[in-house]
Amino acid sequence: MAQDQSNILGSVSPEEFLSEYWQKKPLLIRGGFDDDPALISPEELAGYSLDDDIESRLIQHDDNQQQWQLSHGPLDEKVFRELGEANWTLLVQSLDYFHPPLQELTKTCSFLPRWRLDDIMVSFATDNGGVGPHLDKYDVFLVQGEGQRRWRIGYQGQNVSSINPHPHIAQVEPFEATIDVIVNPGDILYIPPATPHWGISIGNSITYSIGFRAPSIGSILDALLSSQSLQFDSLWHDGGKLKKYHAFGALHSELPDWAQDELQHLLNRRELLIAAGKTVTELKYPEAVGSVNLPKAQELSEIALTEGIELSPLARIAYFEHEQALLTFINGIYFQFPIGLEKAIQKLNHQFHLSKNDLDELPRLPLGEFLSHGIALGALRLPE
């Protein structure tokens, strides 16, 4: 499987991709991988759909795609024995957390921030199988594995009508496609958000969907509200503001202004940076990375100084530079380090490891703490 970042984009450079395509328009990349990545078999995929800890869906339709059925996992093994040879697809979400070979796919997207990476969904479809024409809110790279699929893709913001052929299946009406193509093993399609697309399997096929999330204001507010350092117990004082007519149900007009002033006082830039950093580095399944108690992690960090350190393929490490400090986030947990470690974080995110020589060039005091916490949280590990 090819893993060079210039290869996954074909003849398009990372700079050109980010300026011309990212979140703007779709891109077909022929031969982004040398061949079928072959990272999971249909039988293995079906096995994961039986697990009640893993999100999965089975979608079926008739020959004319008029009648649709949806079953959520965990599925029963007998379901697969009763399925026909066409018109269905199995989708398993966040499989990179549970199937290590898939984690290699995330390394091919090192030209994008790791904190934007969501997960890898894998779909197996039989002949004529698919989920129908639809829109997504996120960016996705569709890597074709086994078999072929026909993809029809529109353009971002295209005026399409929403339909629900099943109460829990959101689709759009068939649309005018600007790209109509059959993809082969190793081909890649990039689809930006709000771009209609429609894939139909030609025979049996597997597709790997590398999804990229964007933080929502709601998730950042949730992080703020759960902050231990913020005190949301300020109370309104009437202080001569009440009048007799307020007793008849009229709310005081200054209440919203008071609330806004209090929030602006509480939510300073530092708190917003911390809330945003926690949000974008949180893992969907933090238990999947395997934690280590801190004393053991400190022992391993000493070994790392002589052997080097690797970034876990699932890890999310990012930082803000703020007021001469490095606000650092490791798998959703906040730490503050002195300026000087940013080069280590940059190299980990880009090259996935730090050699002994790399570590020797870094300030020892914050480095030891950074390594210890990174190992404890399962974000860093010794080379295998």
Pick out its properties.
384 residues; alpha+beta; Jelly Rolls; Malonyl-Coenzyme A Acyl Carrier Protein, domain 2; 2 domains; 8-stranded antiparallel sheet; 3-stranded antiparallel sheet
Short summary:
The chain is 27% helix and 25% strand. It has helices at residues 5-8, 14-20, 42-48, 77-82, 103-107, 217-225, 255-266, 269-281, 294-307, 342-351, 356-360, 364-376; strands at residues 27-29, 56-61, 68-72, 88-92, 117-125, 139-144, 148-153, 162-166, 169-172, 179-183, 188-191, 197-202, 205-212, 309-311, 317-322, 325-330, 333-338, 353-354, 380-381. α6 (217-225) packs across α8 and α9 packs across α12 (364-376).
Structural overview:
The protein is of the alpha+beta class and 384 residues long. It folds into two domains: 5-212, Jelly Rolls; 286-381, Malonyl-Coenzyme A Acyl Carrier Protein, domain 2. Helices cover 27% and strands 25% of the residues. It has twelve helices and 19 strands. Strands 1-11-6-13-5-4-2-3 form an eight-stranded antiparallel beta sheet. The chain has a three-stranded antiparallel beta sheet with strand order 10-7-12, with no helix packed on it. It has a three-stranded antiparallel beta sheet with strand order 18-14-19. Helix 6 (217-225) packs across helix 8 and helix 9 (294-307) packs across helix 12 (364-376). The protein is globular. The model is unreliable at 2-6 (pLDDT under 50).
Would you spell out the secondary-structure blueprint of this structure?
Layout (H helix, E strand, L loop, with lengths): L4 H4 L5 H7 L6 E3 L12 H7 L7 E6 L6 E5 L4 H6 L5 E5 L10 H5 L9 E9 L13 E6 L3 E6 L8 E5 L2 E4 L6 E5 L4 E4 L5 E6 L2 E8 L4 H9 L29 H12 L2 H13 L12 H14 L1 E3 L5 E6 L2 E6 L2 E6 L3 H10 L1 E2 L1 H5 L3 H13 L3 E2 L3
Antiparallel strand pairs: 1-11, 2-3, 2-4, 4-5, 5-13, 6-11, 6-13, 7-10, 7-12, 8-9, 14-18, 14-19, 15-16, 16-17
Helix pairs in contact: 6-8, 9-12
